Amino acid sequence: MKKNTGGRPRRRRDPDGTRLAILEAAGTLLAKDGPEGLSVSQVAQLAKVNRGTAYQHFQTREQLVEATTVWVSEQLCQSVFGKTAAGKNADGKLTPEEQAKLADPRGGVIEHMTQFAMANPELGRAWMFQVLSSPQPANDPFWKLYRHLFEGFVQTDSAQPGIDVDVHTVLMIIGTFLWPVWARAHTRTAKEREQMAERFTNEIVRLSMYGTMRPEKYPELAARLVKGAPGKPARTAAKKATKKVAKKPAARKGRGAK
Amino acid sequence: MKKNTGGRPRRRRDPDGTRLAILEAAGTLLAKDGPEGLSVSQVAQLAKVNRGTAYQHFQTREQLVEATTVWVSEQLCQSVFGKTAAGKNADGKLTPEEQAKLADPRGGVIEHMTQFAMANPELGRAWMFQVLSSPQPANDPFWKLYRHLFEGFVQTDSAQPGIDVDVHTVLMIIGTFLWPVWARAHTRTAKEREQMAERFTNEIVRLSMYGTMRPEKYPELAARLVKGAPGKPARTAAKKATKKVAKKPAARKGRGAK
DNA sequence: CTGATAATCAACATCGATGTTGAGTCACGG
DNA sequence: CCGTGACTCAACATCGATGTTGATTATCAG
Predict the structure, then answer these.
(1) Residue B214 included in any domain
(2) Is 0.70 topped by the overall pTM?
(3) How far in angstroms lies nucleotide D23's C1' from the CA of residue A6?
(4) SS3 for B191?
(5) Residues of A in contact with B164 (CB under 8 A)
(6) How many C-beta atoms lie closer than 10 Å to residue A85's C-beta?
(7) A257 in any annotated domain
(8) Is residue B191 part of a domain?
């Protein structure tokens, strides 16, 4: 008993396309409002899809958020690492090519990440929201992959000794994705943004090579570092990370009927 | 015509205390849900205050969020920097003591920040949400203060040449506040958390002193760095930051009556 | 061409959140 | 001792968001 009275023409039937449209819209809004701020209505509106259709693809708001976060993470993995070095070499050793790729500021992972982050600030932001909201940020596939690559580099003799892999993963990943947020606020043209990206990779490389402090100016600090900090060995310390698969359902705030 | 029928006993009259309770509750929830996920109802419930009371202190949800963010930032400034080095020496030059304080890993700003961040992961998280949601992250007082201090350090001869202050500010601030999020997920006892804090400061100091890559392994990279990147001078480049005070009202999603 | 399948959508019932109002209650100054 | 004003709170009206249902229609297999 329902004719298509006015309104926009019925959407062409294309399940996968619709699903993708919904995910993209959800990603955009995720970047704007965070996981708790996301509403199915807004997503549907932005995706130019009836809200009911969204519920056809994702049974509940929670599931939509969930699906969107893994989709975002997949996008990141895909775009930054491609299918190269995805699963193989899981023993922690890098092939020489991978090691070179990681370190090289031209065409290496760092530049790749920065480029992608600058080009897709929304995805990066959405991903950060997700990380901030997750009880186990390090379970994220992108996070794991990056950490794995970097750990491989650390074990080569091109790396300085005593690097803490986890601290570095936090610094690099987060920095790379937050930089575009900062840079957006200080640029107007695409050209400027390109310069910002370069500025970031340059500084990362500079930092990686020389740090920020002149060691000769801090003799006793340097002495303390070589023999390790008082309380701890200060080694790479990849600590097995108390697994504890706490997968709580996390009852939603309370909106909606039955 | 309203008696106190059942319910909890009326709250003792204490405006400032109430206001503070609301702000603290709001801060906690801000850390959990982000600015868009914050609801006045939840805040009131957590603060053990009637929802109407919250509206007495903050006319609207938006204003509550706003007030909470500035409060969080103030807490941060207060706790990390104290009232030392707040406004004076705004010319960018650090006194020798300040410079020493900044750099010293024992009792310096870095350790201070890390300690505070580890002790108050919620505040840090709330602050990060805020930064992520703000169109102008660098306008945050805490951000400005940290940047100012670091810039002072960069201009001393204890610093390596060519440091990009903005990139560093992003890395350090964000890293410091995200580290506790990661660390929380991997620790159980307070002792462990203390070690995590130390691990972070140690790595920051190590990174600052030696970087991650052995320069001798990357001769042509090193050569490129000293004479600057091809496209740009790659100098300190503190770029005057297009002020543009875009203070948009940012119309709320649309809940609520009239 | 035709019936089955499933994607799309409008409408419904329900609920929580917002912001407002007016009544109760405490504290303090005169 | 008694207002006066600030503070606290319950109840109201309204609106948007959720999740469900059943009608409609595009697409495909036979």
Answers:
(1) yes
(2) yes
(3) 16
(4) helix
(5) 199-200, 202-203, 206
(6) 20
(7) no
(8) yes
Of A43 and B17, the one with more pLDDT: A43
Number of domains in chain A: 1
Asked if A37 and B35 come within 8 Å (Cβ–Cβ), the reply is yes
CB spacing of B131 vs A181 below 8 angstroms = yes
Contact A160 B203 (CB under 8 A): no
CA-nearest of B50, B12, B52, B44 to B26 is: B44
Alpha-carbon distance A17 to nearest alpha carbon in chain B (angstroms):
27
- Coil, strand or helix at A245: coil
Distance B64 CA to C23 C1' (A): 25
Q: What domain range includes position A134? A: 71-226
Q: Structure tokens of B189?
A: 């006892």
Q: What is the pLDDT of residues B55-102, one digit of tens each?
A: 999 999 999 999 999 999 998 888 888 755 444 444 556 677 777 777
- Surface-to-core class of residue B184, CB atoms within 10 Å of its CB (0-12 exposed, 13-18 middle, 19+ buried): middle
In a domain, B48, yes or no: no
For residue A162, give every residue at least 6 positions away whose Cβ sits within 8 Å of its Cβ, in sequence order, or none. A225, A234, A235, A236, B206
Distance in angstroms (rounded) separating the CA atoms of residues B226 and A63? 51
Give residue A164's identity as a one-letter amino acid code: D
The distance (Å) linking the CA of A196 with the C1' of C30 is: 67
CA-based nearest distance B78→chain A, Å: 24
- What digits encode the pLDDT tens for the residues B147-196? 998 998 999 899 999 999 999 999 999 999 999 999 999 999 999 999 99
- Tell me if A71 sits within 8 A of A79, measured CB to CB: no
Which residue do the tokens 């709330």 mark? B126
